[in-house]
Predict the structure.
Amino acid sequence: MEAEPNTEAFAAELLKHRAESAPAEVKTLDDLIDTFQKSPAFSALAEKTQDAHKHSFKEIRKEWPKLPLKLTQQRGMKAMIRKWHHTFSANPRKADQMLFSLSRVYTFGIDEETIEKNPCTGIARLYTGSRKESVWTPELIALFRAKTKAHMLLAFEMAIHTGQRQGDLLSLTWKQYDGTHLSFQQGKTKKRVRVKVHSKLKAMIDALPKDKIRIMNNSRGRPWTKDGFKTSWAKECARLNKESDSVQIEGVTFHDLRGTFITERRREGSTTEQIASITGHSIAEVGRVLEKHYLATDQQTSDAVILRMEKNIT
């Protein structure tokens, strides 16, 4: 306050400050979306997650422009959302992403005490697929290692030896490597993990020139962009498929190397707690990955149970 107390100027200045500091009035679903996007909760999300929400919000605003927020709390709103959700059934992943974004906005509104319930609660997702079999087999791994170009091989070995996400690997700098460990602050979860470098990966990293900021670079020695890496990866897999008569790189992605890491470490005998300390998952998340997505059809793991039994029972 700059005005003298007990003056008209003081009273006017006080009213001005109160008006400026008052929270924005949230009357419609549009208002709630705007408030969420300006909040620390939204800023804390990974860039990829923010982009997905922003795309969803455009569709949500088209469907319910200027919808009074109080109407979203009334009976019948869930049925409207379910019907809208099903209009995108031809693309179930997109449909589920939009449902998730809308639900996240309502959850934010509850946290802020703007609304009392989330009408998205209880609406079933449309996408039911899984990646049970989407791990890199020994044959696929051998093909990639034998035939791929050096800069792509480094990305492959980084992923399969550390279990980290693509974005965190592409942004890795030399400051994050101390000669024995790689240190990450994961972009998605913000968790900090420190991964000991496998001897084979260490030999590759130590042989790289140190005149760049990033450890991983494209064929021109420039830092990878997300889209650039995605395009180059697809082209490299297509090239390797043309050169191979028997094994084809199909049905697996770069991200599946993360799941392959989890699966292989479990096969070796590492516990879920130990795996979680490297990947940045919670212990429960590692358990769900192993149970639902990868080990459900893993014959090697189930065979190992019987092999151990044979050793212990005479």
About this structure: The chain has two domains: 22-111, 138-312. DSSP finds 15 helices and two strands in the chain. The mean pLDDT is 88.
